Each structure stands twice: as structure tokens, then as C-alpha cells.
Amino acid sequence: MGNDEAELVKGTVQNASIRLNRVPLIDVKYPTGLKSRVEYVLTLLSNTTSKDVLFLGIWGLGGIGKTTIVTTVYNRICGKFSKSCFLNDIGDTASQPNGIDCLQQKLLCSVFNNEMKICNPKQGSTLIKERLGKIDILLILDDVSHHTQLDALAGDINWFGTRSRITITTRDQGTLCRIPENDRKVYEPKELNMKESLQLFSSYAFSMNKLPENYLQLSNDIIHTTRGLPLALGVLGSYLSMEKDKKVWQSMHQILKQVPQNDVYGKLRISYDNLQDNIEKAMFLNAACCFIGYKEEIVISIWEACGYEPRYHLEALKKKSLLKINEQKVHIELPTNFYHEEIVMLDLSHGYFKLAWNNCLENKVFQQLKVLKLSNCVKLFESPNFSGFPRLERLYLDGCALVNLHESIGKLQQLVYLNLGLCISLKKLLDSICRLSSLQKLILNHCILFTELPKSIGDLKESLVEFLLDYTNIKALPDGVGLLKKLEVLDLSHCFSLVDLPRSLENMTYLHYILLSGRTKLRYIPKLPSSLIELRF
Fold first, then answer.
1. How far apart are the C-alpha atoms of 44 and 56, rounded to whole Å?
2. Is the pTM of this model over 0.90?
3. Greatest pairwise CA separation for the chain in angstroms
4. Contacts of 461 (CB under 8 A, 6+ apart)
5. What values do phi and psi take at 68, rounded to 5?
6. Cα–Cα distance for residue pair 304/310, rounded to 1 Å
7. Can you state the percent helix, strand and coil of the chain, rounding each to 5?
């Protein structure tokens, strides 16, 4: 056998092995109404010249079943291609630091079954084009939220070999406009009809295809509020499967009627709002804010450390279709922006994360958040980006390992309370902190390496009332401190390196208390304001 023949045999064996070992994705639990939609998509994918590369865009609002459709299509036809890849949650992944690089790397690794290091999106796009240009591939890009994601992963038909099929799901039809009309087809799935809606709802609520007669009218009433969206039918059906009291169903119907007809996610929120168990609420919010995509066992171990008995509560959340485990990873059934919109307080204290959230908050803005607690997050070395919290009033960062603060902290114009106590690695503050025009209390106590205040500290003159610097390593206060005309309490106790106090202190006409106990190096006390009530040594 010659070298060419040997290589041909080797390639044929490898290709056959890849196809035989291709693992199908997990199918949907209840496929009501799915068959006709899948068949239509398969027709669109096949209705073209065999050698052509085709892009198919599936677009529609969240919850319509786009991911379910492409999952079933993938399982049906992936074996007909030399290579296949299903990339899910593209929009969310792309919003993470280096998210595009990660997606490109995942694509190439999935196709060629080996690790590839990608340094930047441009290099990744070049590699995709070079490596996939002669291969027929079935590529699913699920939940694309911006055209830049498509540009980086499937920028043109010439990136792929003949017969390739690239299917994109998106909520934004504009994302597909970058693909030339001759090279793309577009499908907009329709809502389930009434018969399909009744069957799907019954499957989730009663584990049967047909509704019991004594629940038929109530079910009809509830189903009419869902607009035939499979996700809404599944979530509400799962929740009501735990409640057989008709009065609860009637109450649910009344609540649903109060939500605007087009506010689908408002309807889905009701399942969360009706959770009676605070631990399940906490676990859901933990998962939604921190653990999407994490391995199930890792998340369970964290919840066990919190004393949650997570396996029991996790099953309850899964039964209510609020949480989902897919490929041993945690996912949520509600839209990924659901949990941010109305949260007023978020407590992540004692967390072991190194990064509180990514820096891309355009789609995940906590518009209503007023209190954020990150106390004693001992591995939090990098300051979070605070741009996404326009109404934040109280921020707890005490006990963290922060070396500095993110420049964006100056955008928190409604912040009245900032606790940085026991941040033992913090050495100084950025000037941007002096733009906090509403800040009333600033705590820096026990920041043992802290040595320097910004010279512009006086810019807080219209707001700052309490300033706690005890047990810091500060050596001197800038003259700008004397501009803090609203300041009432200044705690400098046990500041063992403090040598001088500024003469401008006498201008602080609201100052009532100066605490200097434990001082060892202070050379003199300047003239103090007449408003002073107590000077404590």
C-alpha cells in the first residue's frame, strides 16, 4: 500500500470514528408542537444546491423555542457532516472578559478535539477560516446578541467548506443583516396554537397530554395569558404542578392578568416571586447572579458550606423549571436579565470569588440596586466595575483583599455609605472617589497599609459627615480636609504614623468630634473650630 493510500485509509477511519462517537444533545422533555417546526427548518436547510454554504437565521422573542428547535435539528442531522459544533449562550459568554476568544477556542477545540490557544479575536477568526475552509460542518450559534459575535465566529461563507450549514438563533433580526441575502434564509417560529398550548401545559402541570376536566377552565384562563410561548407554559405548568389547590390557581390567574400582555418575562417572574422558601430564593439568585455555567457539584459544595441542604432544594427548583442542569452545568430557565431588573439589595458577603462580575454590564444593569454587600470576600483582589449600579446607596467592601478601587466608583452619584474597613492591602484612594457628591460616611478603619488621601478630598465638602481613619498608616491629612464643612466626626485614633494635622481644621464649623487616642508621633494640635464638642486622646 502506497503512502497516499495509507493516508486515505487513515483519514477515512478517523472521520468514521468522529461520526460514531459524536454525542447527541439532550432532547426536550415534552416535544409538543416541535415536529412541524423542525421539519420546516430541515426543509430550509436542504432546499439549496448541494455544494452551497448556507446560513439560516432563526429569530424571535425569548421563550419561543428557538434553542429547542435547533437542538432537535442538530441531533437529527449532525451525523451527515464531517464536523459539527453547537455553541450555546453566545451572547452571555461574549459579554465575559475575553469571551469572544473563549468562544472561538471552544469552536476549534470541539471540531478538532485538541486545545488551541487564541490570543485575540482577529487571530481566532483567521484560524477558523483556515481550519474550516475545506470542511463541511454543521455549526449552531445559539443566542447571538450582536453582529460582532457573528463576525468573529462565522464572518463569511468562504470560511467554510462546501455543504456547510450555519444556523444562528437570535432575538434581534438586525444581527442577521450582515449576511448577504443570497446566502441566508430566515425563519421566525410562531407561537403554539391553543391545542398545542393546552397539551404542553398539561404535560408540565399533570404529566399527561390531556387536562383533567375539573382543571380545564382554569388552565384555559392561564394559558391565554402566555401568548403560546413554550417557556412560559413550561415554567407556569411546573410551578402549578406543585399546587393542586384551585384557589391558588385562581390567584395565579388574577396575578397573570395584571401583567401586560406583551410582558412575557413579567409572567415568568411570578414563579420566582411565589417561592415560599427563602433558601430556594437565595439559591436561585446565587445561581442567576454568580453560577450560570458552573459545574453542578461545585455549586452544590458552595451551597453546602452555606448550610443550605442544596440537593433537596435544587430538586425543587428544577421541578419548578427555575433551574436546569445541562451537561452537568447550572443554567436558569428564565431570561438572563430577569434577575437584575428589580433587585434592591444583593448580599454576596463571604464569597470566595476573585472577580465579582465581568466588566461588560450593558445587558445586565442592576437598575434598582441600592445596597451591595461584598463584605469579607477574602479572595476579591480586583475591584469590580461599578458602572452598572446607577442607584446604589450603600456599598460594603470591608474585609476584602482589594489593592485599589475601580475608576468607575466615581459614577455612584447616589452613594451615601462606603465601607472599606479591614481592606488590609488598600494603600490609597483614587481621585474619582472625591466625585461621590452624596457620600455621607466613609470608613477606612483598620486599612493598615493605607497611607495617603487624595488632595481633592475637599470636593466632598457638601456631603461627608463621618470619616473613620482609625488604625490606618496615614502620615498626614491634606489641607483639603479643612474644606469638609459638613463633617461632624473625624476618627484618627491609633494612627501611629500620623505626624501633622492641617491648620485648615479650624474652618470645619460642623466638626463635633475628633478622636486621636493612641497617637504617638503627633507633634502639635492646630487651632480647632469652636463647634468641637469632644477631643479625645
1. 8
2. no
3. 103
4. 483, 484, 485, 486
5. -60, -40
6. 6
7. 40, 15, 45
- 85-88 contacts, C-beta under 8 A, 24 or more apart: 85/110, 85/111, 85/137, 85/138, 85/139, 85/140, 86/25, 86/140, 86/142, 87/139, 87/140, 87/141, 87/142, 87/153, 88/140, 88/142, 88/143
Let me know if 309 is exposed, middle or buried by CB neighbors in 10 A (0-12, 13-18, 19+): exposed
- What single letter denotes the amino acid at residue 82? S
The grid coordinates listed for 386 are 461599578
- pLDDT tens for the 537 residues of the chain, in order: 455 555 544 454 445 444 444 556 667 788 899 999 999 999 999 876 657 899 999 988 778 899 999 999 999 999 999 999 999 889 878 877 788 999 999 999 999 888 888 889 999 999 999 999 999 999 999 999 888 999 999 999 999 999 999 999 988 787 888 888 888 899 999 999 999 999 999 999 998 888 888 899 999 998 888 888 898 888 888 888 887 888 888 888 888 777 655 555 565 666 676 676 778 888 887 787 677 778 889 889 888 877 788 898 888 888 776 787 877 888 776 655 555 555 778 777 776 666 665 444 443 557 788 898 888 888 788 888 888 888 899 999 999 989 889 999 999 999 999 999 999 999 999 999 999 999 999 999 999 999 999 999 999 999 999 999 999 999 889 999 999 999 999 999 999 889 888 888 888 989 999 998 875 677 778 888 888 887 777
